[in-house]
Amino acid sequence: MSIIEDDKPTREILGGWLSRAEGLKFVSQFESAEDCLARLPQQKPDVVLMDIKLPGMNGVECVRQLKPQLPLTQFVMLTACEDISHVFAALAAGANGYLLKPIHRQRLLAALKDVHAGGSPLSSYVARKVVESFHSAVPIPSPTRELCNLPRRQRQVLEFLALGSRCGEIAETLGISVNTVNTHIQRIFKKLHVHSARQAVSLYRTFS
Asked: How many domains does the chain have?
């Protein structure tokens, strides 16, 4: 068993649970995707608990890169991200389960044993959302597809927003007016189905 979790108190609690659990062997813990990518392929754990919101590379991209190197390893996302788009992105990347924080110790241990035995544990809320998505006549927007379909100029503006640039700085760098920058930002919000620059940047960092 391995853990990738950037929050130290949470990481220590999870590590304590796993190290004391009967029938489970706790191998390692990491606070970033980059550290995990450098060392986990040599350890080859049976099961990995992966957070999504990590500093630097996010957990979904980390799973996407690790799965081809560790085809027998079962990846379970343990995250506070409830949005169904995150669930589908994680499963598409190679995750075998999706659990929401906070989670009780016994529920987590049971889920880890389940995935090791060939199951795909999902928190009840997540399972319900997945079922509802198939019942819905309206397809759920794919953040990855929407990001890829952004016009070049709008993607440039979003990239600058992700770097922390202000509208005036973006306008000066791209040689356009501040009003034009604001127009691009509003169109980005509409296409990504978000309502703020923070939400747009969060999607960009998660799925780009």
From this structure: 2
What are the tens digits of pLDDT across the range 54-86? Answer: 988 999 999 999 999 999 999 999 999 888 888
Q: Are the CB atoms for 178 and 136 separated by under 8 Å?
A: no
Quick one: pLDDT at residue 208?
A: 60
Task: Judge if 50 and 124 occupy the same domain.
Answer: yes
Residue 175's contacts (CB-CB under 8 Å, 6 or more residues apart) are none
Instruction: State the Cα–Cα distance between residues 101 and 108, nearest whole angstrom.
Output: 10
What pLDDT is attached to residue 142?
63
Backbone angles phi, psi at 59, to 5 degrees: -65, -35
Q: Note whether 125 and 175 are same-domain residues.
A: no
CA distance 48 to 30: 11
Query: Residue ranges of the chain with pLDDT lower than 50?
Result: 138
Alpha-carbon gap, residue 171 to 175, rounded angstroms:
6
CB 27 within 8 A of CB 4: no
Q: How many residues does the chain have?
A: 208
- Residue 42, Cβ density class (10 Å: 0-12 exposed, 13-18 middle, ≥19 buried): exposed
How many of the other CB atoms lie within 10 Å of CB of 18?
A: 22
Cis amide bond preceding 68, omega within 30: no
Looking at the structure, tell me whether residues 110 and 156 fall in a common domain. no
Token pair in block for residue 36: 């995990």
Residue 152, burial from CB neighbour count under 10 angstroms (0-12, 13-18, 19+) = exposed
Give the integer Cα–Cα distance in Å for 36 and 52. Answer: 13
